[in-house]
Amino acid sequence: MTDTIFITGIVIHARHGVMEHETEVGQRFVIDLELYTDLSESSRTDRLSDTVSYSNVVATATSAFKNTNYKLLERAAGAVADDILTTFPRVRAVKVTVHKPHAPIAAIFDDVGVVLTRSRHPPSQS
Fold it and tell me: Are 63 and 69 in contact (CB under 8 A)?
């Protein structure tokens, strides 16, 4: 059984992009997260220690996203996914959506971004 913890609309100012002004001035990004985990124990015990702390997830995602300037959203989203899987052993998989609503595109659009899903690799059987 897999349950889901979701956190949507995390707004972060960062300096990701290919163009020079993106890395100098930066812009607003919005991150949505879905964490796939088993919540059966915490749903019975009502103990924070039996689940994943939303606050700690946000801190981890924010740090992973802001600490390095990436050219591609794909890489920035991958860094967030990697850090969440490394930091939270209870999380079996994570879906990271990164919105870049002010991307330098010569068009009128509502939103642009990437969605990636990463999961733990099962242990290899020898």
Answer: no
Over residues 33-63, the pLDDT tens digits come to: 999 999 999 999 999 999 999 999 999 999 9
Q: What's the pLDDT tens digit per position in 95-108? A: 999 999 988 889 99
Question: Which of 66, 71, 95, 100 does the annotation list as catalytic?
Answer: 100
Q: Report if residue 124 sits inside a domain.
A: no
Dump strand ranges (E) for 15-120. Answer: 27-37, 93-99, 113-119
CATH number at residue 90: 3.30.1130.10
Overall domain count for the chain: 1
**What whole-number distance in Å separates Cα of residue 112 and Cα of residue 73?**
10
Report the greatest alpha carbon distance in the chain.
54
Boundaries of domain holding 61: 4-119
For residue 66, give the nearest of 4, 13, 11 by alpha carbon. Answer: 13
Beta bridge partners of 27: 14
Is residue 71 annotated as part of the catalytic site, yes or no?
A: no
